[in-house]
């Protein structure tokens, strides 16, 4: 019962922030302001939910609370894709300026990369999840190097187009992509419900999960595809936010002190929504749009990541 009250508290806190975001400093033009803010709010809630779900699931599979799905190179792949499109087709080409087309191309490429990665991972009996992480880190570094090389070759005007995609921002949410993203997100969430029953057992580790009758490869394969799709939706919609998942997942662990993923996933999603709405309020009402929310998230998340490393190092040294 105590845990339910914590989740209700998080929900109420998120709702209060949402009301403040929607109805303060409107300036009188309510029709335009409410529609514009409602689109931003929907984008923040969905992005927060997608990143929270994917990070908690990924950390459960890997049994590591300082990892995020971005370690397998998805963020770097997204920036490489946007850079390559501008480099080969130009910043005014249809595939760059057409939101839905760009969204589906980005989604398909990231999913294709993940499928290829998983195919090689699960082909051999001796390879495990840590082999996937190692390959992902190498691929991420390679993608970043190629992106930097291509960015040096293009003109400064075209680089500005890429720069807009390198940092997550809710200031100019594309409504045509938002509708598609919501549909994909809801379908993916419904599909993922059938695999949630495995998460509590998978958190015990591979050997324990196999001994308790969990079809490990079958479940992990599909859960990893779900993780990639959630991250791809969030990244293609607003851009890469590296440390948000790490931040909200660990906040959920610390607040809930519970092993049940129904509780952890709900708490992480609500914490992500509250963090994004609060951060956007800070960007718009306090800082006057002089920075992007991804800068705030990565700054706080980076400090929290160092704290987690130092705390882990202290525990290991005992």
Order of helices and strands: HHHHHHHHHHHHHH
Distance between the termini: 35 Å
Largest sheet: none
Secondary structure class reads: mainly alpha
Mean pLDDT: 82
Low-pLDDT runs: none
Query: How much helicity do the residues have?
Result: over 70%
Beta-strand content: under 5%
Any idea what the radius of gyration is?
A: 20 Å
Number of strands: 0
How many H/I helices?
14
Globular, elongated, flat, extended or rod-shaped: what is the shape? Answer: globular
Describe the structure.
Helices cover 79% and strands 0% of the residues. Helix 2 packs across helix 13 and helix 3 runs parallel beside helix 6. The radius of gyration is 20 Å and the shape is globular. The chain is built from 14 helices and no strands. By secondary structure, the protein is mainly alpha-helical. The protein has helices at 2-23, 30-62, 74-89, 94-97, 99-123, 129-153, 156-166, 175-192, 199-202, 206-211, 216-238, 244-256, 261-286, 293-317. The mean pLDDT is 82. The longest helix has 33 residues, at 30-62.
Considering the chains and any ligands shown, give keywords for the structure.
mainly alpha; 14 helices; about 325 residues; globular
Please outline the helices and strands.
Blueprint: H1 2-23, H2 30-62, H3 74-89, H4 94-97, H5 99-123, H6 129-153, H7 156-166, H8 175-192, H9 199-202, H10 206-211, H11 216-238, H12 244-256, H13 261-286, H14 293-317
Helix pairs in contact: 1-2, 1-13, 2-8, 2-11, 2-12, 2-13, 3-6, 3-7, 5-11, 8-11, 12-13
């Amino acid at each position: 019962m105590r845990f339910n009250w914590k989740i209700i508290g998080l929900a109420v806190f998120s709702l209060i922030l949402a009301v403040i975001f929607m109805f303060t400093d409107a300036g009188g033009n309510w029709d335009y302001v409410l529609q514009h803010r409602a689109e931003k709010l929907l984008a923040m809630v969905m992005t927060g939910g997608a990143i929270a779900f994917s990070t908690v699931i990924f950390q459960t599979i890997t049994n590591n609370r300082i990892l995020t799905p971005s370690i397998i190179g998805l963020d770097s792949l997204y920036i490489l894709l946007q850079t390559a499109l501008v480099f080969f087709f130009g910043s005014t080409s249809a595939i760059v300026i057409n939101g839905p087309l760009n969204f589906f191309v980005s989604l398909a490429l990231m999913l294709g990369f993940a499928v290829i990665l998983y195919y090689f991972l699960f082909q051999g009996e001796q390879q495990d999840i840590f082999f996937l992480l190692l390959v992902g880190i190498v691929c991420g570094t390679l993608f970043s190097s190629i992106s930097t090389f291509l960015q040096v070759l293009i003109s400064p005007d075209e680089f500005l187009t890429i720069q807009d995609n390198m940092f997550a921002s809710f200031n100019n949410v594309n409504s045509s992509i938002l509708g598609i993203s919501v549909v994909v997100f809801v379908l993916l969430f419904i599909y993922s419900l059938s695999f949630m029953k495995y998460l509590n057992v998978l958190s015990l580790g591979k050997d324990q999960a196999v001994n308790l009758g969990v079809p490990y490869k079958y479940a992990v394969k599909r859960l990893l595809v779900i993780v990639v799709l959630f991250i791809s939706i969030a990244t293609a919609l607003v851009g890469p936010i590296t440390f948000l998942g790490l931040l909200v997942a660990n906040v959920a662990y610390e607040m809930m002190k519970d092993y049940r993923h129904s509780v952890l996933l709900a708490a992480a999603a609500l914490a992500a929504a509250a963090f994004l709405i609060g951060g956007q309020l800070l960007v718009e009402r306090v800082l006057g749009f002089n920075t992007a929310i991804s800068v705030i998230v990565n700054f706080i998340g980076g400090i929290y990541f160092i704290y987690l490393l130092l705390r882990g190092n202290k525990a290991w040294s005992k």
